[in-house]
Please model this.
Amino acid sequence: MQIAIVGAGIMGRVLAWQLSQSGHRLSIFDRDPIHSGDAAAYTAAGMLTPYSEVASAELAIHTMGMAALPLWSAMTDALSVAGGGRCHSHCDSPCGQSHEPDCDLCLHQLGSLIVAHPGDRADHRHFNQQVQNKLHPAAEQFQQLNAAQLAELEPELAGRFSEATYLPEESWVDNEQAMACLADALLANPNVSWFPEIPVEQLAPHSLRAGGEGYRFDWVIDCRGLGAKADWPQLRGVRGELLWLRAPEVKLKHLVRLMHPRYRIYVVPRPDDIYIIGATQIESDSMEPITVRSSLELLSAAYSLHPGFGEAEIVSTRVNCRPALSDNLPAIRWQDGLIRANGLFRHGFLLAPVVAREVVNWLESGESYRSPYAELIQPLAVPA
Ligand SMILES: Cc1cc2nc3c(=O)[nH]c(=O)nc-3n(C[C@H](O)[C@H](O)[C@H](O)COP(=O)(O)OP(=O)(O)OC[C@H]3O[C@@H](n4cnc5c(N)ncnc54)[C@H](O)[C@@H]3O)c2cc1C
Model:
């Protein structure tokens, strides 16, 4: 089939990659260049954390997220072949510390740690209860560590916290590397044409208009994130701010979440002593620079997690808006010749492979396809 994908954020790229595996002819349109832009995907921390996220999300996020983890694993394996060895699949140490120099995309499968200061233990307990109540029974994947066990697993936190929750299946990818590796694999495929820096002015069943020209396809798939708001008015932006710090005095290996009654943070390790500290979640579609208040909250929480952050350089601050629907769940809406996939909210990296797989299954099986995820796929007339 001749398929247009409009929007090459994480949703559009993962979907294009999956469709390209089935031999479809693809035209990818994006208003931004191939290797940079304003997509929310370029701001994301790249966490794949289906357990932690369910504390404040529907169970469906966990169910879909668990289905997505093996798809991420398979995708990183396959990208390593398609990219001629550029992308490495699984490694068990943070990038930049011990693995091969050509490792461009690494699925960091080290698990995540949840900790809280003594005064915030109630918040930590509440988090554990929320997750366990929703996931019952989750005992195996939900390990309570005492101070000695925490010190053994993550020596950087030794003596700082008397207990922790360890979620060994949680992982993360480098968002920019994932975007780049997917683009490289797609550009290497002769069935894929990429139209960068061309905003799509109008899209409709079987057709679109871009750069003043009209195009026709068997299917048009709208993956524009917040860029689709004019056609999907229920979409809203949820602002997220995060900081990149260079902290040579900090040697964290795991993704760490600090529980706090007002400002919970996560810390994601990156190569070269970089740590991503995130993120705020504000009901606003403002893309203005990070506020003093948000910076203070994120930085104080980071400093309270590890004093080595006190000497860190602030390398960059990043702001973007997550595309969300009213229930904060992803949605696929279809009519003949047009599919929209959107609403990935704070889970676009986690969920893109499974939402993409559902689009592919639906396209290849037709209207008789029954998704295992109730409500995910609906005719376009049904509002989300
Ligand atoms: C601070 C922050 C941290 C996050 N951390 C995580 C995380 O750790 N894990 C996780 O799973 N998710 C995370 N997310 C969420 C994730 O970034 C989003 O869910 C995801 O990017 C949504 O993907 P998308 O492809 O739908 O939209 P986007 O990534 O925004 O991509 C949309 C694309 O459409 C293009 N476009 C828009 N309009 C047009 C047009 N008219 N013509 C052509 N092209 C167009 C844009 O240029 C863009 O490339 C985070 C988000 C933020 C803001």
In short: Residues 2-47+177-232+327-379 form a domain with the FAD/NAD(P)-binding domain fold (CATH 3.50.50.60).
